[in-house]
Amino acid sequence: MFSKEESARIRQEFWTSFGKSFPRKWLLYNTKIKGFSFKFVADRKKAMVCLDLEHNDEIANQLLYDQLLSLKTILTNEYLPEVIYDDSYELDSGKVIHRIYVNHTEKFSIHNKNTWRDCYEFFMDTMPQFELFFYEYEDFIKSAL
Asked: Which domain covers residue 31, as residue numbers?
């Protein structure tokens, strides 16, 4: 077990190392759609690349999710075959959101530096595909609102 301080230091080292090893400007929160963001997730048990829908307006949130559902075949067939759509994903905080994501299937723990490289490569393979999909269908996605 790690203390909170050690765990925080390791998490910071993980993300700093990722940024230095793979310097790139990511889309992430800069989608220009409120409550619509891409995220990297890495913790003690899993890593994933996500598209989170957390719009404050529940109707707008559902409209965005439905718009993305209409693109599921394209996203799956042309960009990310392993993508998972979850209309009620529960975050660690207990908040329930719409999440579209790809899991890193290799064994991973942010506390095990031997697993970092594979995770970084997963991030580098997956996020650009998500971004390409978004840029290609951005106007269509935005038209839901």
From this structure: 4-142
What's phi and psi for 102, nearest 5 deg?
-125, 125
Number of domains in the chain: 1
- Which region, left, alpha or beta, applies to residue 103 given φ > 0 means left and ψ of -120 to 50 means alpha? beta
Which phi and psi angles does 89 have, rounded to 5°? Answer: -80, 125
Rounded CA-CA distance 126/102 in Å is: 8
Whole-angstrom distance, CA of residue 51 vs CA of residue 20 = 23
Listed as ranges, residues in the chain with pLDDT below 50 are: none
pLDDT of residue 2: 77
| pLDDT, tens only, 54-81 | 999 999 999 999 999 999 999 999 999 9
Q: How far is the C-alpha of 114 from the C-alpha of 128, rounded, in Å?
A: 24
For helices 116-142 and 58-70, angle between their N-to-C axes, nearest 10 degrees: 100
Burial category of 39 from C-beta neighbours within 10 Å (exposed 0-12, middle 13-18, buried 19 and up):
middle
What's this model's pTM, rounded to 2 decimal places? 0.93
